[in-house]
């Protein structure tokens, strides 16, 4: 995603569908479904142009180490202000 390439993820209840938005930043398939996985990979290869690389990159940036650090620092400062 950081390179603007759509991804294929499976829905396993760990937040993958929060990171990868189905139809926007890639495709989400059900786990243990080899056909759905193969179809999703083929779909991305055949229709990659329908995905906006800049949108995908921006979504990946939301989960960067830098963004995580900023968010954690803000949270800590808010907690300290309350005390």
Can you describe this structure?
The chain is mostly helical and 83 residues long. The protein has one domain (7-82). It has four helices and two strands. Strands 1-2 form a two-stranded parallel sheet. The longest helix is centred in the last third of the chain and has 18 residues, at 65-82. 12% of the residues are buried.
Could you give a quick summary of the protein structure above?
The protein has 83 residues and is mainly alpha-helical. 54% of the residues lie in helices and 10% in strands.
Portion in helices: 40-55%
Structural class: mainly alpha
Number of strands: 2
Helix count equals 4
Please summarize the sheet with the most strands.
Answer: 2 strands, parallel
The topology string of helices and strands comes to EHEHHH
pLDDT averaged residue by residue: 93
How far apart are the first and last residues' alpha carbons, in Å? 39 Å
Strand content: 5-15%
